[in-house]
Protein 1
Amino acid sequence: MVTGYDHLLFLAGVVFFLYRSKDIATYVSIFAIGHALEDLAVAWLRGAGFDLYTRKGNRPDGGQFGFSVAGGRIRGHVDGIIAVGPEGLGLAVPALWECKTMNAKNWRACVKDGVTKSKPVYAAQIAVYQAYMESSVPGISAAPAVFTAINKDTAEMHHEQVPFDADLAQRMSDRGVRILQATDAGELLPRIAASADFFECRFCPWSDRCWRLER
Ligand code: SF4
């Protein structure tokens, strides 16, 4: 839901940190459209026979499924959990469900090469979520995750199963710990780009601070 408290707080944070009004408008629009399409995907999957839970008990006031470790410094919310798949599909459950919207070019790459190759960041997110959700949803890492990609330009949908990659989850978890250790030690890690104009830096809430600090 676009109007959940966590989203409102997140949007407030984004508006606070993004100083260019054009960036704010773009980011909020992308965020809202992404969530509207995700809500549609949820309805369509349920209509196709997936017993898909996006909130505890599937109640509007039910909390999102998620995890929190390292004193809350590593945490996340999953888009959904499939409890039962349509008859005849043979889907292993419980299965993590992750949904992303993307432009036509990225969507075609995802269809052609799969999410692991075309969008490694999403694959890392899926692996980490499967690993950390295992304690609260036993079996979720044994079942391949279901990844849904929605083409924002044509409304086409792509679904694929993503087997759990334990090595990837471990590497990403180790990286998270490394970042926390560096932060606690006051150590500045390398930036991901050579310029603040890099796409991800332009939408990063910490951009201003990050590019002011000397390395
Ligand atoms: S601005 Fe954000 S995304 Fe870019 S290098 Fe800094 S912390 Fe990373």
Protein 2
Amino acid sequence: MQSDDVRIIKERLDIVEVIGDHVRLKKAGANFIGLCPFHEEKTPSFTVSPSRQTFHCFGCGQGGDIFTFVMEKESLGFREALEVLASRAGVTLSAARGGEKRDRSLSDIMEMACSHYRNLLRGPEGEAARAYLGRRNLPPETWESFELGWAPSSWDSLWNSLFRQGVQPKEALDAGLVLEGKGGLYDRFRGRVIFPVRDIAGRLLAFGGRLIDGEGAKYINSPEGTLYSKRKNLYLLHRAKEAARASGRLILVEGYMDAIRLHLGGFGETAASLGTALTEDQAALIRRLADRCCICYDSDLAGQEAAMRGMYVLQKAGLDVRVVELPSGKDPDDLLSLPEGKDLFGKALESARPLILHHVYLRGEMLRSPDKRRKATDEILSGLGSLSPVDVAPYLPRVASAMGIFPHELSGLLEDYRKKGGNREPSAPAKEKPAPSGKEDEGNEVEAAVCALLWKDDHIRRTADEMKILSLLEDERFQTVAAALLSAPSREDVESRWHSLGETFPLRAIARGGEWCEGLGEARAAWDVVLDILARRKARREYEHIREKLSRGEAGREDLLRFQEVALILKSSPREKGK
Ligand SMILES: [Zn+2]
């Protein structure tokens, strides 16, 4: 069970030690404080509580337990964070006995292949490849840092090497490194410069191969399989994550060379999509790092339908999508190879167009032509209609003017479009951000305290009256957290579910509520205080509601009776720390 793993890992690891690897912590009373690793600050507002095994930042609101910390700090998913912490704690994951362990050995084989290719690039067989890379203006130190390799034209160079190291045919096939022919196995990549593709945590998943001469596809990639899914990864993202987080944006290019060139040019926040159709999985990856995504494709590609749809997928996921247009149809590799390329690219980035305006710009000619105007208008409406009204609002005037109509007319069209159900997927509720950049509305502290106490004390959790608790909470988010805790078999069970769903709000709320309860004594005592405060708040709301009815002359007999009861509750002596 994953929840057992979570529990055992938490028993073995101390949050102060885990966070201490990243943050210099100082003891302050029962807690530790330090400079928050999630936002810039000069005075510490980041607190770690050894007794609760949680952290919380008063500056940016980030908070949670060791899993949250590792996921946020390293930009990992729950499963990956679980692996990292399990190996630190010396715990063998229960699920790892099946599928996971196999993957690990496939990864090992991939690493063996990677060093084989890299050695060949340096050796006598790599001469043609080195000449090619020289022509592409990539100096030798970049071959090392980007782990470039060379797969010679021979049919069995890699397979021979793997075989000598004890790799089984099945394993090499599963890793996608070889193919099976009539005469046996042969290498997939031949006569190609090799680009290793790693996931966000740096694990080697796939290779891309660039043909340097002869016939064949210019680029080929490892096949989709157990290890690699193109839809879920971005090339160089593991190297881009720090810079992306620091700058708040990710630059997305199409190919290997463009991505490497931008990294060399000082734009370390760059990754490559290796294809045109961006996916929701990729959008979620980017959202972990940055709020803005600047897409920089070849100019012809940026207009293609598939590319356009992909950009809307990112925008819909809550990213601020900008489309970068490079001067006179150059690709990033060309541009950055110019002496003034860095400046030119920087300027192009600054003037990148918001996706919606880019779309309108692309359809400019169609919009001016009487025959095509209708089609272009529909297309833009369907793009706008797929986004939340909040995203669209700032651009309505400019879009309307490009369409030759008034903004209120465009609003009307858009409303009709939405009503007709053009927006098939109902607009998802605004997703909470995984790494809040500013201070967000984190809700009422006392309601957070309810969640914290349900979390902390198993007796309270098992005996609390669910209906009563939920009726005291006004914020739907806390209701959801409390309901999950109240209905779960164990708290670890809910926790691993939150982690695997990528929900960060619950643990932030719990950490924050825990802070609030500090000084209220043991959990049961704090529980009484918290419930009392919320019951009074509820009574006060009811009191005001009935009083309003009375003043309008709409109150009935029952209202009058209830009014007296509520007034009594409010007059009874309040407990300590009331708000
Ligand atoms: Zn912070």
